[in-house]
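Example 3.
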Amino acid sequence: MNAPMSRRQFFRICAAGMGSSSIVGLGMSPGAALAEVRAFKLARTTETRGTCPYCSVSCGVIMYTLGDKAKNVKSRIIHIEGDPDHPVNRGTLCPKGAGALDFVHSPNRLLHPEVREPGAKEWKRISWDEALTRIAKHMKADRDANFVEKNDKGVTVNRWPTTGVLVSSAITNEAGYLWVKAARGLGVVSLDTQARI
Amino acid sequence: MTNHWVDIKNADLILIMGGNAAEAHPCGFKWVTEAMEHRKAKLVVVDPRFTRSAAVADYYAPIRVGTDIAFLGGVINYLLSNNKIHLDYVKAYTNAPFVVKEGFDFKDGLFSGYDEAKRSYDKSTWGYEIGKDGYAVVDDTLQHPRCVFQLLKKHYSRYTPEMVSKICGTPKEQFLKVAEMIGSTSTPDRVMTILYALGWTQHSVGSQNIRTMAMIQLLLGNMGRQGGGVNALRGHANVQGITDMNAVAGVLPGYMLGPTDADPTREEYLAKRTPKPLRPNQMNFPQNFPKWHTSLMKAWYGNAATKDNDFAYDWLPKTHRAYDVLATFEYMFQGQMNGLIMTGFNPLAALPNKKKLGMALSKLKYLVIIDPLRTETAEFWKDFGEFNAVKPEDIKTEVIRLPSSCFAEEAGTYTNSGRVVQWKWAAADPPGEAKTDLEIVGTLFTRLREMYAKEGGKAPEPVLNLTWSYMNPAKPSPEEVLREINGRALADVVDPKDKTKVLVKAGEQMPGFGLLQDDGSTACGNWIYSGVWTQAGNNAARRDTSDPAGLGNYQNWGFAWPANRRVLYNRAGADPATGKPWDPKRAGIRWTGTAWAGNDVPDIAPGLGPDSGAGPFIMTPEGVARLFAPLLAEGPFPEHYEPFETPLAENPLHPGNKKVISNPVARVYKGDLEAFGKADQFPYAATTYRLVEHFHFWTKNVESTSIVQPAPFVEISEELAKEKGIRNGDMVKVRSNRGEIKAAAVVTKRIKTLDVAGKKVHTVGIPIHWGYVGVAKSGFLANSLTPYVADANSQTPEYKAFLVNIEKA
């Protein structure tokens, strides 16, 4: 059992249940592994099936994350590629989809709520609680002031014509459905998505 | 898509027009090359530019921007004049034999009933003659002078190859070659598919562009067949799903037209939307509308929706005018709106006439942006020099920006343009403090609901009673929501023929929309998705790659709405008399003698055989497809109208009638009409388009795509370049009557100067992807140039045909 062993194999064996001391006890040493080429990163990742976010071919993708999705582990996506099982894209991706990892890690990702006060030149960081309080207050004040219960003919119309909602065509069906439900429940009539454009 | 991506491989002829699949949908385009390689299928591309799709086509023909109806109308004329139609199909499956009412007319470019002041039609003459039996009158010989077939012939007889060439600038021989190739699929053993995208929708006549093509596919007998159909390739990865959920003004989930001020009661509302059959023995499936609508109200208002309160009908907002996104920005521009909340939307970049949009946003009291990325809209108040010259101190809008997750960080479903609903899993948590959209809408709604519960306010009932019984109301799970969308039984659903037989037990997930009820005993958030999460579990998450028939239908991969059907109207893929597939090698469904069966879920009641007389187009009250369609705003037959900004002084089909140069019923707001440019100042036709490396205004935030395609450019022909003294790589200024952009000129052979009605027309091509927020090089928003006018049916803006001028910067 003195065959050369890579670091990866070594750790796999350790993970399989044998304590490292017992491996040494069997006459195996990880020393030789130090000279090995760098381990193939994807071999130790968690694979997650997903859908490319761009066009409506909606290609299947596999996302590879470091970390095993345990509660205390912060996963990081390190690679995205086409899903070979997917009947439409069969593992391929176009230049947009092939770069999807750079979307996930774009330097322009938003990280915390912000407000731009009237007339201000810059954003100001705020907490989620403050952001939601501001939004909810604006919405309720506007709805209470401008909600139309009946039209001039006395027909109940229950609409809120002064605040609009635009729902992205890039969010899930579930999130889209809930936005529609909440918006209609509030009486929103200006409701639209990118489908029209 | 009436069909789906993999099904493209079953076609004999593929027409790409109004789209550029090779660049905009590359992984779907693979099925085109698959068909070319393995079926020896031919690819035809018709486009103003010699696109990358054209580069691999068997045949390419150029066309002037905004003249697709003229071209396709010419194809209809060719098919009818040369007997290249599938006559058995046309007689049995379309309204060709239906007799149209007396009084219907078409003169000088206008149909009967035009009201110039209202810019709309009184459509009362656009209907069928109704017989004594209460049904539409038909003439199976197709000889009646007022039958649809004869009217169709007459209408398109004006679209001669010479006229097509005059309007479109397509050389006559090239038009004829395309028409001949299309005509070759009129036999039952040949099928054509058509792939289109925004190149057809983004016109003031967008809906009619697509309708003209649908008519061609019906004349050829290509609808309902494997390898056929009319296939919209569409935009975002879930644009189909969000359309299905109807985040769309005036429409409720599942394409149910919402209530308006003209529907004061539930009874009137339902009656108007529940059609009576127009021919005997038809399925007339929309007769189930009350079941879908009542089930939606039960999903939204639960126990608070009762028979006594008309299932909470009054709590639904009613509309009395347009509320699409262009109308919304117009009202904002007029100062009628105070707030706007948007998720993943960048309207300042995506809508026409940026200058107007910025002014409109400045009039808001509050703007809420929910997005994974920085966008131009979120920073419309910021001074970006020549790209966005504004004074922040003058803009009083409060802007609140919330960070959201991206596709990789949230679970749930996306629906591809082939209607396949597919579950996806989250790979990581959102970065920083970003949250998923479900959590954001959940938190915001529950907070508002609490405020209404505590403080009261205007009309609190619809808010307080909206069902929101998720395990964690502030963070609903996608599983819970998809189950709600599918629907469940609230009481036992019994067999109407044997009331002792329980078909669905109270509390169980509905097996499909077929058992939804109108008495409040079922709840369903979106009837067309019913079946996506049954008692068997999450059907959207199925990953079975078996395809026994080899047609690519993958019946057990995900879930296709409706009813897991992969090819719509598939009953029309079989002979009307025998129920045998038109082509046994590409058989969708067949009649076994007792039932429909085969490689797909039948698009007809399984027991309604060929003897029943039931037509295959079950969503129309006549059971057949419409060559004559009275629903569209411009008329029952598509007619060519020029773009609102046209290089021509008149409509060549109607010289002398100024009213019909452009779409006579498109909505034009005050100020926008004045902002249209004229050909003397803006002599060049322009169109916007997309590149393979970028997606909309989104990937300019993505490093890899920004490296491969870093900076804005516009394309012009060698001829125009020579005329204007522009060399490849020169910076140029492109101006419309609404704004200007600067970009590098790419002088190309891909765009040709066309001969149109005796005039030379140059075209300027403008890729849209740049802006001044991103990691790519900064550029102007292309929609600084585009006109604020849209299709009269869908209100899709006219981005694909307008006028510009160009000069060296």
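The helical segments of chain A are 7-15, 20-25, 95-98, 100-104, 128-146, 173-186. The CA atoms of residues 69 and 75 of chain A lie 6 Å apart.
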